[in-house]
# Entry
Amino acid sequence: MATKPAFKQASQRTQMNVFLGKAEKPVGRLIFVKDGQREFSQFAYSDEWLVDPMFFDVSPDLHRQSGYQLRKPPSKSDACFFLALADTEPDAWGRRVIARAHAKARSKDASLGPLTEADYLACVDDFSRVGALRLQDEQGHYLRSVADGARSTPAFLELEKILLASRAVEMNKETTEDLAYLQGKGTSLGGMRPKCTILDADGALSLGKFPSVGDERAVTRGEVLALRLAKRSGIDSATARIVMVKDQPVAMIRRFDRTPEQNRIPYISGATLLQANRGDEHSYTEIVDVMRSKCENFIDDARQLWRRLVFNQLITNVDDHLQNIGFLYCGNNQWRLSPAFDLNPFPDKDRESKTWLSEDSGPISSLEQLVEQAPRFELSLAQAQAILDEVATAVKRWKDVAIEPEVGLQPHEIKDFKPAFEGLGIR
# Structure
C-alpha cells in the first residue's frame, strides 16, 4: 500500500483488505476507526490496482489517487464506508439477525463489546456478498467465510429450515442455533422483511423472500406478479417464481450480479451513483443527468428507466427509493442499469412516488407528469406514448399473470391487490 493513514491512534481500529471478483484482484485497504462515539473509515487503492489496465473507480466517491481517502458519515443515518462498500452491508433484516446473535453471545460473555459498523460489514457471507467487492481480514481470510469443505449458502432443499428459523426470529422465539444458521445469509438487496441468499435447484445464486408473520396480503406472490408483469412490459427485470414451503409461498428471485459461471459483477445502487446522503430528497432527472456520463448506453438506459416509472405508476409501486435502483459494471469505467428488482404493488397506498420525478415537479402522481418530462429521458412525446401504451397493455393482463402457477394468487388474494391496478384505466 502507498502511504500511512492520516490519523492518531484510536480506541478501536479494524483493517480489511479489499479484493475484486473471482480473480481476487487486490483493490485496496479499508480501515475502520471507532473513537468514542465517532465512527469513520479510510480507504487506499493498492499500487497494483492504480496501474492495472482494468482499473475503474470501485465507488464513485473514491478517486484514482495514491494514499488514504477519508469517509466521515454526513449524519448518523449515513454509512461510514465509501458508498459501494456500504452497498454490500446487510439490510435491516440481516442487521436484526446479527444483533440478536450478538446479544445472546454477550449475555454469556460480558467481555464482548457492542457491535460496530465494521462488524456488520464483515458479517455478510463472502460467497453471496452483493457485487464483486470482497473483504479479507488481516489473517487473509475472506469475510465472512467458512471452513474448507463447508458451505455457507444453503441449498434449495434447505428452504424449510430457513423459513422456520426466520419465523422464529420474527416471533422473538429464536434459538442460538437458529441465529447461527441465519447469520451471513442476509443481503443488502432488501429491507426489514425476512429473506436469505440461497442456491436454486440449478445451482444459481438466488434470493429467497419469505412471508412475514404480520402480512395482511400475499406480499411474496405480489412481488413475483410485479416482476413477471414487468418482463411483459418490456422491462429488464429479475427472474422470479413462487415455490411452496410448508404451505407458505416463498419468492425465489435470481441474483443478477452473477454470471452463469458464477463470476461476480460489480454493483452499485442508485444512491451510490448519485452520491446521495440518506436523508436527502432526490429526483429521477438528477439520476438521468449523472447517468449521461456514467452509463455506457445512456439513451437506452434513460428510456428504460422512464418505462419503469410508467410501470411503477400503473401498479402502485411506491417503494421506489434510490436503493431500489441498481447499476452493473460493464467496463471502461462505465455502468448500465441493472435488472429491475423489489417491485411491489401497494393496494393500500396512494399513487405517489417516494423519489421525485424532477426538482420542479415533485413526486410522481400522474401519467401526465411522466409524459411531460419524457424529453429528459431521451424520448419524444410520440415515443413516450408508444411506451405508455405498451406497458398499459401488459399490465391490463395482471389477473391472467396472477393465476399462473409461478405466481399462484387465489381469487380472494387477487381481490386484495385489485386497488393497486385500478384507477388509471387498468382493469
Observations:
- The longest strand covers residues 25-35.
